[in-house]
Specification:
By secondary structure, this protein is of the alpha+beta class. The chain folds into two domains: 14-141, Creatinase/prolidase N-terminal domain (Creatine Amidinohydrolase, Chain A, domain 1, 3-Layer(aba) Sandwich), CATH 3.40.350.10; 146-359, Creatinase/methionine aminopeptidase superfamily (Creatine Amidinohydrolase). 33% of the residues lie in helices and 21% in strands. The model is unreliable at 372-376 (pLDDT under 50).
């Protein structure tokens, strides 16, 4: 039953440090203090809640506290990480002073540091030049290696199987909150360590809210129901949205709305390939919806990267300026939302390749749930 029962391939992080050091050298930086938890994890394998990485051209130190002494040693060893571990609760500044030599240029993660923490760092590293960096490691994390992709595939397979398992509940007039809880429960039964994000369930008029929070509203026969959810495996989270009609056949208006969004989503997926502009994916989806007079009903971006965070670079929107590269894993998720009537969103996650893309979310699409058809 579990989608994660087979042993996962090891995540080896050694090459990531080399890549980071190259990026630092290109920016004229002698080192970097990494404080964002997912970036610490990506570089070292360490999953604890308190950890900082001090990186120099020839040094690599993880600073944590006594709770994680054994965990840090075990996780760094499993990931092939060469960092030494300094355990301290009160002398972090002294460790950093020893790692970063006087006169060096030290990068820090500006988006992850409060003003108070920055003042403390300035005091600890007096005599060093502190340089704010933005999205430096996030950019390096965009391209997924095969071990990362396998985790995303496993997470997506769990979500697919869980979606199939909860569909009969739609005939029982559950509340939105009850359906969301069952989705989460089914994913955990199948081996998910957690959900990727708070499961979205919007029914009837609530389906016109792109990020609807599940309520105690009863899902009635004939309601449009938008379900957006994902499973997490070893830190990597999947993302998928399906829209169905609960307990009855769709009306002609519901079917027209759904078919327009599905056409846009399929066109967007078909446009994904290495070398294609990120903006083109967004434009492709919007052009289809505009032809159906639904351009104003599409009120959010078309997609985003997934990985250790559920919203990673790149962002696929009208403001995107990048080019898709092989090895990215992105979502394509156009929607159309009509207040008072309801909304539709269809979302898949795909691996970008030189030839196009490979979907990793495989649940059937259609307004009428397909209870007897297994994902595949």
């Amino acid at each position: 039953m579990s989608g994660s029962s087979t042993l996962l391939p090891a995540l080896v992080v050694t090459h990531r440090l080399t890549t980071l050091r190259q990026a630092l050298a290109e920016r004229g930086l002698d080192g970097m203090l990494v404080t964002k938890a997912v970036n610490v994890r990506w570089l070292s394998g360490f999953t604890g809640s308190n950890g900082q990485l001090a990186v120099t051209a020839d040094g690599f130190v993880l600073v944590t506290d006594g709770r994680y002494r054994q965990q840090a040693a075990d996780e760094l060893s499993a990931a092939g990480c060469s960092a030494s571990v300094e355990v301290t609760a009160t002398a972090v500044g002294a460790v950093l002073t020893a790692v970063f030599a006087t006169g060096t240029s030290v990068g820090f993660e500006a988006a992850d540091m409060s003003v108070t923490a920055h003042h403390r760092l300035e005091a600890d590293l007096a005599g060093r030049r502190l340089v704010a960096t933005e999205s430096l490691i996030e950019t390096l994390r965009q391209i997924k290696d095969e071990a990362e992709m396998e985790r995303l595939r496993r997470a997506s397979a769990i979500a697919d199987a869980s979606f199939q398992a909860v569909q009969p509940l739609l005939h029982q007039r559950p509340t939105e909150r009850r359906l969301a809880a069952e989705v989460d429960h089914q994913m955990r039964l199948r081996g998910a360590e957690d959900v990727s994000f708070s499961t979205i369930v919007g029914s009837g008029p609530n389906s016109a809210l792109p990020h609807a929070r599940p309520t105690d509203r009863v899902i009635e026969p004939g309601d449009l129901v938008v379900i957006d959810f994902g499973a997490k495996i070893d830190g990597y989270g999947s993302d998928m949205t399906r829209t169905v009609v609960a307990g009855s056949e769709p009306t002609a208006d519901q079917q027209r709305l759904y078919e327009a969004v599905l056409e846009a989503q399929q066109a967007g997926v078909a446009a994904v390939a290495a070398g294609v502009s990120e903006r083109l994916i967004d434009t492709t989806c919007r052009d289809v919806l505009a032809r159906h007079d639904l351009g104003e009903a599409f009120v959010h971006g078309t997609g985003h990267g997934i990985g250790l965070e559920i919203h990673e670079q790149p962002i696929l929107s009208g403001r995107s300026v990048g080019i898709l590269r092989s090895g990215l894993v992105v979502t394509v998720e156009p929607g159309a939302y009509l207040p008072g009537f309801g909304g539709v969103r269809v979302e898949d996650s795909v691996i970008v390749t030189e030839q196009g893309c490979l979907p990793i979310t495989k649940s059937p699409k259609g307004l009428v749930p397909e209870f007897d058809r297994a994902p595949g």
